Automatic annotation (TrEMBL), chain B:
<dbReference type="InterPro" id="IPR013324">
    <property type="entry name" value="RNA_pol_sigma_r3/r4-like"/>
</dbReference>
<protein>
    <submittedName>
        <fullName>SigE family RNA polymerase sigma factor</fullName>
    </submittedName>
</protein>
<dbReference type="InterPro" id="IPR014325">
    <property type="entry name" value="RNA_pol_sigma-E_actinobac"/>
</dbReference>
<comment type="similarity">
    <text>Belongs to the sigma-70 factor family. ECF subfamily.</text>
</comment>
<feature type="domain" description="RNA polymerase sigma factor 70 region 4 type 2">
    <location>
        <begin position="99"/>
        <end position="151"/>
    </location>
</feature>
<keyword id="KW-0805">Transcription regulation</keyword>
<dbReference type="InterPro" id="IPR007627">
    <property type="entry name" value="RNA_pol_sigma70_r2"/>
</dbReference>
<keyword id="KW-0238">DNA-binding</keyword>
<feature type="domain" description="RNA polymerase sigma-70 region 2">
    <location>
        <begin position="11"/>
        <end position="75"/>
    </location>
</feature>
<dbReference type="InterPro" id="IPR013325">
    <property type="entry name" value="RNA_pol_sigma_r2"/>
</dbReference>
<dbReference type="InterPro" id="IPR039425">
    <property type="entry name" value="RNA_pol_sigma-70-like"/>
</dbReference>
<dbReference type="InterPro" id="IPR013249">
    <property type="entry name" value="RNA_pol_sigma70_r4_t2"/>
</dbReference>
<dbReference type="Pfam" id="PF08281">
    <property type="entry name" value="Sigma70_r4_2"/>
</dbReference>
<dbReference type="Pfam" id="PF04542">
    <property type="entry name" value="Sigma70_r2"/>
</dbReference>
<keyword id="KW-0804">Transcription</keyword>
<keyword id="KW-0731">Sigma factor</keyword>
<dbReference type="InterPro" id="IPR014284">
    <property type="entry name" value="RNA_pol_sigma-70_dom"/>
</dbReference>
Amino acid sequence: MTMTDNDLRDLLARDASTGGGAGVTLADVDRRVRRIRRRRGVAGAAVAAGLATVVMVATSPRTMTISPADAPDAATAAGPSPTQDVTYLTSDRVLLDEEITAGGRKVPFRVAVQADSVNIQVECRTPSYAFVWHEGVLVDQGPCGIQDDHVDHLRSWTDQDGRVPSGRDEFHVAVIPPGSVVDGHGAVDADDAARIVGETGEYRTDARVTIREAFAVVGAGSPSVCQGDIVIRRPDGREILSSACDQPGEEPPSPQG
Amino acid sequence: MRDRADFERYVEQRSERLLRTAYLLCRDWATAEDLLQTALAKAWLAWRRVGENPDPYVYRILTNTHASWWRRRWRGEQPVDVLPEPAVGDPADLLGSRDAVRQALTCLPPKQRAVIVLRYFADLGDAQIAEILGCSAATVRSQASRALARLRVDSAARSAMSLEG
């Protein structure tokens, strides 16, 4: 027996109609959207870290190759490095991943880790407003989950002070209904946050807290500022290095040139 | 086709059919669900740019994602010294039979499989398939011709029908 086109159509239609999976729901799709966003965020952080490393590598030989013994003046000129600029980028190493099932109350989350810093993300599966405290200080707040603007908001905060006291970090997260904060966008202060959470009272919700390790990228910004200003001069036949960053009172140019 | 309500309506109305299309691409329901979730998620992320008819965009993500997963799986496969025995002793008995076609379908390269599924299940014309797969209509025709030859679909019967969409 030889098949015809119509036989092939029938076969495909029959195969596709038999068995069948559980189907795909909007909730499945929304979960996948969050995963893609998270992955893109991590990938973006990795790219940023890579770029920062490239900047450091491109910059460091200009300031490090002159030894004081060979050229003391030059070493002095290159020595005063610009202000150390440290940025903390989120890695993909998860330290804590827990559900929040109760809204209207501060839920504690603790991690104990030797790391440069930490990042906390709050995902809400129901439209909400979230507060995040770090070591007792209100550090982040805002819409969480899908809001009226149809955007799925994710709370994400990285400790840019990079302090992990004694290798321990304590966070508190409170999820409240989106209408609890006036207009849903204006930030409230710590006292109001505590009051609003207290007035809300406990209710059932569905959110997830993920804490990841963050790593320091040292000098990602400042050295590149001076990169173009390091020049070689030959006064009296000698070579010295100089930089606009070393000139007192002179503003270094912007990274964009 | 710009807001969340449109997207929700689209998922509600089209997900069943799209899931079947995904299944025919990968021949596994769990993978098909995974594939469709990924395609719809990516469609939502680009929803404002998708336009009035999201089908071509979603089909494109489905076929591209399937092809990339297929390549990954292919790289992970290990060659063996001895080929597995065929399920039926005489290969001639298989020719033209439904089981043989099914078996041959699973062996088609992803692009040829996509052409077959989009043409004979999604009922798309060659020009639309070309747009989805990012190739010319002539390439679609040649890929379809090769695929049909491997599936042993009768060429005379084929030529008697109008295949152009």
